[in-house]
Amino acid sequence: MARPMSHLSLPAHDLEKDAVEKRYDDVLVALRRIMRATDLYSKRLSKTAGLTAPQLLILQAIRELGDVTIGTIARHVSLSQATVTTILDRLEGRGLAYRQRSTIDKRKVHAHLTDAGHAVLEGAPTPLQMAFTQRFEQLRDWEQSMITAALQRVADMMDAGELDASPVLHVGRIDRYHEAGKTGTESRY
Q1: HSE value, Cβ hemisphere, 13 Å, CA-based, for 73
Q2: DSSP state of 186
Q3: What are phi and psi of 90, to 5 degrees?
């Protein structure tokens, strides 16, 4: 009668191979959980506030910075001026923000919140990256460095090390827009 095969009877290289496969499965599951959490947050934000994460960040930047130029907003939220301008177009179209030319320097345009913009911010959930940042800041320096290095290495391994990205946790196009009553993601220009 043949004995059942156990890990003790496997050659050492098979045990190593199993351990490596388990580790990369664990890494892929962790990445999938991160992507899923980001997607679920984006859907919740869209449903409760009718905003995307970048729209919320831009509205918050306008509220926080006051009389602010598009360039300053772009630097504050780590997005390009073109992306911020596109998002501001949508926010203006929804009556949440408006732009006004400076009375002092006519070359400058400042963004402002409308009353509706203030109201939307009051009812919006906290951005996912804020919760992450608060927890990350509680870690020791060596833990922060280890996580940063590991994630940068993972990005490189996925050929994503050189992709342009902002520190906005959001799935899909950065300028997507969910219209009420639509089933898919709509992009309005």
Answers
A1: 31
A2: B
A3: -65, -45
| pLDDT tens-digit profile, the chain (189 residues) | 455 555 555 566 666 778 878 888 888 898 899 888 888 888 888 888 888 888 988 999 999 998 899 999 999 988 899 999 999 999 999 999 999 998 888 889 999 999 999 999 988 877 676 778 889 999 999 999 999 999 889 888 888 767 666 565 554 444 433 333 333 333 332
| Cα distance between residue 8 and residue 159, in whole Å | 38
How many of the other CB atoms lie within 10 Å of CB of 74? 19
Structure token digits, residue 56:
């919320």
Domains in the chain (CATH in brackets) are 21-157 (1.10.10.10)
Instruction: Using the CB atoms, write b or e for 139-162: b if 16+ within 10 Å.
Output: eeeeeeeeeeeeeeeeeeeeeeee
Question: What is the number of other CB atoms lying within 10 angstroms of the CB of residue 170?
Answer: 22
Output the CA–CA distances (angstroms, integers) from residue 42 to 55, 93, 94, 143, in the order listed. Answer: 11, 21, 19, 27
